[in-house]
Amino acid sequence: MKDPYEILGVARTATAEDIRSAYRKLAKKLHPDLNPGDKSAEEKFKQVAGAYDLLSDADKRRRFDAGEIDASGAERQHERYYKDYAEAAAGRRYQSASSGFDDFAQQDDFLAELLRRREQQARRAPGADRSYELEVDFLDAVNGATRRITLPDGGSLDVTIPPGIEEGQVLRLRGKGTASRGEGPPGDALVEITIRPHRFFKREGDDILLELPITISEAVLGGKVKVPTTTGAVMATVPKGSNTGTTLRLKGKGAPRKGGGHGDELVKLKVMVPSEPDAELEKFLSGWTPGPSYDPRRDMQS
Q: CA distances (Å), 73 to each of 15, 101, 142, 163, 168, in order?
């Protein structure tokens, strides 16, 4: 170990008050609470505390000055292996640092106040947050709802689902977590939302997607058809000559937007023929001949 006088920056003739003053000055600068995460400052503080522990004890200081003990407080009269010396020195350094800290805490108002504040902060710390997962129906996610979670302890938690919530969003319920160990407020409940798929609705951003089957006559002649939306069915017009893939846009029938308003519902038409043979339809089509300009595969010719 370094010479304790050098560590504290005082002469060998320094008085007890000089040593105490030098220690306080260095401790204020190097104390771990004032240098969080600084390993170098922490190690220097341990050295300062160890040096002060030795020099503030009149008997230890006398024996050190006389060469009877070394800077770690170990006796000098016996030869020792390095391993033994290192273990003893490490133990004494730890004890010195601890006793030096106690002395500093008792004698210095600044550190005493710092420790008092830390204790208050620990006492007032909030409880831990609790995490949950809640699966909701597609329509509840779009339109909003209130659902209840059953907790492991048998209690329950009512969760308000805001309209337009998306997959993976986390709702924070203030004060519904673990109680504080001290005087602080309880933690929060963090509820992650998962959404069950719908059998025919899908969502893309703020828009709702829907594939709507229509008959051949509706596709050819056009007309009014009933279209499902997330808030109930509405009537929409199928244009004459519609094909599979033709898309209708229902303004404002999508999911709520964060900034206000709603997205749209995009209705993709799908022309469907009867799954069972239809004699009348077959008879009609057998007598129909498309014009020479009509070729649905014209763009696929190589």
A: 20, 18, 74, 71, 61
